[in-house]
Amino acid sequence: MPFSPLDVIALCCFFICWVGYTGFARKKAKTTNCVARCLHQHRIYWMYEVIGRDIRVGEAALLANLERNIAFFASSTLLILAGVLTLFAQVERLESVIASIPYAEFPNHVMIQLKLSLLALIFVLAFFQFTWSMRQYGFVNVMIGACPFDSSESNKNLQKYAEQMAVVQDQAAHSYNYGLRSYYFSIAALCWFFHPLIFIIASLFVVYTLYNREFNSKAVHAITLGQKFLEHERALKYSGDNAQAQTRHSDDK
Question: Buried b / exposed e across 94-114, counting CB within 10 Å, b at 16+?
């Protein structure tokens, strides 16, 4: 029997960690400050600024840089996937390599093919996420190009349009994040080649690492503070604009 009970437990633990953490992070982000939640607010403020700029060369450069990073990962994913598929023709050699590693589980031909299939599946999913992220950033470019210039920066209709641009950009960032998360869990899947217990420990470690980086890192605290500063500055700006409008109104009378 190629499957041992420990292998089944390890594989189930892996999928529970991946799917469970994805659902947990999405739900927790709705009520807790984290990278995704705070950056979404920054994107809204960014798009608010966009509608007040007649020349948007800076936005084009920033979005091009984001797309360039995603394109790098998308192309790298294809190369990795090609390498994984090539290993299917080198299973016997891979068996001998694993057998030479101290304390590694005795390799099984069918199990190695299954583990390679898992890696191939992970990188296929990552490629889908990266390419979808690239397309959504393209949608943001189109929306910015179609957005008219608002010199008053008080057009409520355009502000709602800016919020929708931020939503599309946020979805693009989520897809990019899901693709990166696939890379993290692929490292855990590699540990299955050595031993199922190492596979379980690596899966839990990936979840621990992702949680700390997305919810408890210094970057999260800095982004959260930055969001508060932006909110304060925006409140001051609009309170000042309202005061000037009221002054002009009284002068006209």
Answer: bbeebeeeeeebebbeebbee
pLDDT classification of 241: cutoffs 50, 70, 90: low
pTM beyond 0.70: the answer is yes
Return d(Cα 207, Cα 226) in angstroms, integer.
26
Structure tokens at 94: 């891979």
First to last CA, the chain: 91
Structure tokens at 219: 């970057």
Q: Convert the pLDDT of each residue in 11-55 to its tens digit.
A: 999 999 999 999 999 999 988 889 999 999 999 999 998 988 888
Q: How far apart are CA 29 and CA 158, in angstroms?
A: 27
